[in-house]
Write a structure and sequence with these properties.
- The structure is a single chain.
- By secondary structure, the chain is mainly β.
- The chain has one domain: N-utilization substance G protein NusG, insert domain (mini-chromosome maintenance (MCM) complex, domain 2, Sandwich), CATH 2.60.320.
- The protein is about 5% helix and about 50% strand.
- The protein is built from 1 helix and 9 strands.
- The strands form 3 sheets. A 4-stranded antiparallel sheet has the order 3-2-8-7, with no helix packed on it.
- The chain is globular and about 30 Å long.
Length: about 100
């Protein structure tokens, strides 16, 4: 019998670091919570949007806007990184979800 792939846990918090220092920690699974938060990175302002247990970047002063193009994150261990702004958003915590499949 083999266990095939582990599903990622739904994250509980979004941890925001700027320049390697934690600046914000947001709870993701608050019911009916929708909010935009301004983060000040090394290049300027970045706006993250939190809704339905997911976090994503909706505005950034970085030149290529790759962080905005990344889909919103919700699973433990996932992250959004904006290298020019030196901002890292990491999803932490979560509930155990089990395995994708068991073969035998």
């Amino acid at each position: 019998m083999a266990l095939v792939g582990r599903t990622r846990d739904q994250g509980s918090y979004a941890l925001v670091e700027v320049g390697g220092k934690v600046t914000h920690k947001f709870r993701l699974n608050e019911l009916n919570e929708k909010r935009d938060v301004v983060i000040i990175g090394t290049m300027g302002e970045m706006v993250i949007h939190i809704e339905e247990g997911k976090v994503g970047v909706i505005k950034s002063t970085c030149p290529h806007k790759l962080c905005i193009r990344m889909s919103p994150r919700s699973r433990a261990g996932e992250s959004i990184i904006c290298v020019p702004n030196k901002v890292v958003i990491t999803i932490i915590g979560g509930e155990k979800r089990g395995y994708d499949a068991i073969t035998g």
